[in-house]
């Protein structure tokens, strides 16, 4: 079925000038952009967004990284969007990411891995609502 996923181009990829390259890979792969903006997470926003990882040893580092500069937030639509987008971005650790994936091309490390992709329909809805008002979703 056609469904939606939520993505962020993370601060590392924005700093390194990869917004255009990543959006191009996304649209070339057949995803339709439903919502899109350049924004920045506050420390409180990043803590809330990654609440599920609060007990992990890398949580502090993750919150600091995700709030250090602008990100691009987007909602994407496609047949099988959640799974197909996770395939397109590749493994969390760029050392394990397959050829042709966004992380293989643009990620620098396990923590600074260029892009986010929702892991379920439920989380895509929650994450989309976190970043976008209804009138910003087309
Ligand atoms: P993502 O899967 O999008 O969401 C959770 C993030 O936590 C992950 O991307 C990485 O940015 C980060 N992360 C996961 N594992 C580690 C780790 N071992 N060390 C540092 N950051 C991590």
Automatic annotation (TrEMBL):
**Which cofactors are required for activity?**
Mg(2+)
The record's catalysed reaction(s) read: a ribonucleoside 5'-diphosphate + ATP = a ribonucleoside 5'-triphosphate + ADP; a 2'-deoxyribonucleoside 5'-diphosphate + ATP = a 2'-deoxyribonucleoside 5'-triphosphate + ADP
Keyword DNA-binding assigned: no
**Cellular location(s):** Cytoplasm
Molecular function per GO: ATP binding; metal ion binding; nucleoside diphosphate kinase activity
Residues binding ATP:
10, 58, 86, 92, 103, 113
What EC number(s) has UniProt assigned to this enzyme? 2.7.4.6
Supply the PROSITE patterns for this chain: NDPK_LIKE
Q: Which GO terms describe its cellular component?
A: cytoplasm
**Residue ranges occupied by any Nucleoside diphosphate kinase-like domain in the UniProt entry:** 2-136
Phosphoprotein in keyword set: yes
- What are the entry keywords? ATP-binding, Cytoplasm, Kinase, Magnesium, Metal-binding, Nucleotide metabolism, Nucleotide-binding, Phosphoprotein, Transferase
Q: Which CDD domains does this chain map to?
A: NDPk_I (cd04413)
**Pfam families in UniProt:** NDK
Please classify the protein's predominant subcellular localization into one broad category.
cytoplasm
GO BP annotations of the record are:
CTP biosynthetic process; GTP biosynthetic process; UTP biosynthetic process
Name the SMART domains for this protein: NDK
Q: List the active-site residues.
A: 116 (pros-phosphohistidine intermediate)
Q: Which NCBIfam families match?
A: PRK00668.1, PRK14545.1
What family is it from? Belongs to the NDK family.
Q: What does this protein do?
A: Major role in the synthesis of nucleoside triphosphates other than ATP. The ATP gamma phosphate is transferred to the NDP beta phosphate via a ping-pong mechanism, using a phosphorylated active-site intermediate.
Q: How does it assemble?
A: Homotetramer.
Q: What is this protein called?
A: Nucleoside diphosphate kinase
Source species: Flavobacterium luteum
């Amino acid at each position: 079925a056609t469904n939606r996923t939520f993505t962020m181009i993370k601060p590392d990829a924005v700093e390194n000038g990869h917004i255009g390259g990543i959006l191009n890979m996304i649209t070339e792969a057949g995803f339709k952009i439903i919502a899109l903006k350049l924004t920045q997470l506050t420390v409180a926003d990043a803590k809330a967004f990654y609440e599920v990882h609060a007990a992990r040893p890398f949580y502090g580092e993750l919150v600091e990284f995700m709030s250090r500069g602008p990100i691009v937030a987007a909602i994407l639509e496609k047949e099988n969007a959640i799974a197909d987008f996770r395939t397109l971005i590749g493994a969390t650790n760029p050392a394990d990411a397959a050829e042709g994936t966004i992380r293989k091309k643009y990620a620098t490390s396990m923590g600074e891995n260029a892009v986010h992709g929702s892991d379920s329909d439920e989380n895509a809805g929650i994450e989309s609502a976190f970043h976008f008002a209804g009138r910003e979703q087309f």
